[in-house]
Amino acid sequence: MAIRVLLVDDQPLLRTGFRMILEAEADLAVVGEAGDGLQALDQVRALQPDVVLMDIRMPRMDGVEATRQITGPERNGPAKVLVLTTFDLDEYVVEALRAGASGFLLKDAPANELVQAIRVVAGGEAMLAPSITRRLLDKYAGHLPSGEEPLPDTLHTLTDREVEVLKLVARGLSNAEIAADLFVSETTVKTHVGHVLTKLGLRDRVQAAVYAYESGLVRPGAQ
């Protein structure tokens, strides 16, 4: 079955461009469009898309609040949110990730990256581009723990190996890369990641990465 995509952007020309790109792919289907966050909520309820391609800055309701309502505890449907931003250091991107977005992508990204990002998010993974994520977290370094504060109690629920895996996830490594780094199988890594998400009450790898930085477990610029 084709991956059902909802396009949310206040610029009709951009929506048209995205539609043309996505409809050229046999496994993607654009099921609707919305020009702001409120319309997006209505369309998600009515159309039940698999992935919402979400702009951040829009009238009436921005992409952050729309993402929060689409992916929150009262969510109505399986939709995952892939945030679109014009600038890779958009100050709203971190808030969108906290709100439950499964990743973010620059609007000027090549068409093949857009298509691949949608497939990855629809498959339950997160778009955690190391370079952009690192620049974002470096930008917010002044608002993150210095590393001198005590770690939160929730981290003590993790095993030593799960902490290792969380640190590598925060660095943007894929399951295959983590497996190679730790000399274990990808299946083992997936199991560890699942345990981390469950124990910390997180939705996906993106939220795990943000948590790792905000908790002080990992610091911007550290290896």
UniProtKB/TrEMBL annotation:
Residues in HTH luxR-type domain copies: 151-216
Name of the protein in its database record: Response regulator transcription factor
Modified residues (4-aspartylphosphate): 55
Response regulatory domain: residues covered: 4-122
PANTHER family: TRANSCRIPTIONAL REGULATORY PROTEIN NARL-RELATED, TWO-COMPONENT RESPONSE REGULATOR
Keywords: DNA-binding, Phosphoprotein, Transcription, Transcription regulation
Stored PROSITE patterns: HTH_LUXR_1, HTH_LUXR_2, RESPONSE_REGULATORY
Pfam families found in the cross-reference section: GerE, Response_reg
